[in-house]
Write a structure and sequence with these properties.
Two copies of one chain form a homodimer.
Chain A (H helix, E strand, L loop, with lengths): L6 H21 L6 H8 L3 H7 L3 H9 L14 H16 L2 H16 L1 H27 L3 E2 L4 H17 L7 H10 L2 E2 L2
Antiparallel strand pairs in A: 1-2
Helix pairs in contact in A: 1-2, 1-4, 2-3, 5-8, 5-9, 6-7, 7-8, 8-9
């Protein structure tokens, strides 16, 4: 994969990643081909090839993208925002192809240091974002908690991953509420 | 695999499963061979072969055993018992070979109906055991909760699996306390 500092190249790169992600969610890993991604992103096939010679690399990029759209731009009240983001994560993982791909990546990380690095970066990003949001909620008095950042992620994200990849069940809004309740005392 | 109703055969079968589990935890999947299991269980090699012609079958049996030792025989106070069982689960998953094997089983379950069935049975057993324990704690007034059984499992076990297989970190006693706090209001 090539990373460019040219803003136009960065935009087209992001368009391809977004397109690949949309195809993956809508139709599964098989839909993430150079041709479909090029079409959906409005770029030439050669551009997709240049960034990711193998479709698997693009898939890996999408699934473990450190710049993933989840938990971005927290809003007050944080509780409502957190619920919405966890809901979206649960809905994405409810797509069997996404759950399967997540498990495949988790497993590949055991023997592939590159994938392990991407997993770590991705988790670091999510953990930082959730932590920043919860800290800002604590500052405005919305919540009281002394949970460490990594524990917040484990308590909020862990059960959703478990429900969708092991229990093979639906994440209800009630469960999301319970998870949010579990991280501290909310005053909203 | 053969299942016998003869009590002596059942005992030797259990001894072999226990031996395989001990070898797996202590030395990793590579140690779960017919010879080592026979030696450790004090049975003949032919007996191990008869039950599990392939070592992988024994490994699968151990990893997805519906009769797993965790969360068995709840004791009052339930909070302390729950903490101890979750601690033990976390310690087992802290062994890299066990975490790797768990991920492999979770992933294999996607395309192998037999493994999926074993995973479902195993989860059902754990969920029932946790649910019975929490319900008994509710009856004695130790805890107040209206969480559904599957949600209890997701909230208690999910973060531990996530911490050990994705975050690749240690499960602290403090995190276990937080997880237990999260399932309801405890009066102990």
């Amino acid at each position: 994969m090539s990373y460019s500092t040219d803003p136009r190249a960065a935009r087209s790169r992001e368009a391809m990643v977004v397109a690949a992600r949309e195809l993956l969610v809508a139709e599964g890993p098989g839909a993430v081909t150079h041709q479909r991604v090029a079409q959906q992103a409005g770029v030439g096939r050669a551009t997709v090839y240049r960034h990711w010679p193998q479709p698997e690399q693009l898939l890996l990029e999408v699934m473990s993208d450190a710049d993933l759209p989840l938990f971005k731009n927290p809003e007050a009240p944080v509780r409502r925002w957190l619920h919405r983001e966890l809901r979206q994560m649960a809905d994405e993982l409810a797509v069997p192809a996404i759950a399967a791909m997540s498990l495949a990546l988790m497993q590949s990380a055991i023997w592939d240091p590159d994938i392990a690095h991407r997993r770590d970066e991705s988790l670091k990003t999510i953990t930082e974002r959730i932590s920043v949001a919860v800290r800002s909620a604590a500052e405005t008095g919305e919540v009281e908690t002394d949970a460490a950042p990594a524990d917040l992620t484990a308590m909020l994200v862990g059960p959703i991953v478990y429900r969708t990849t092991s229990q093979m069940g639906v994440v209800s809004d009630d469960l999301i509420d319970r998870l949010i309740d579990g991280v501290g005392t909310w005053h909203t």
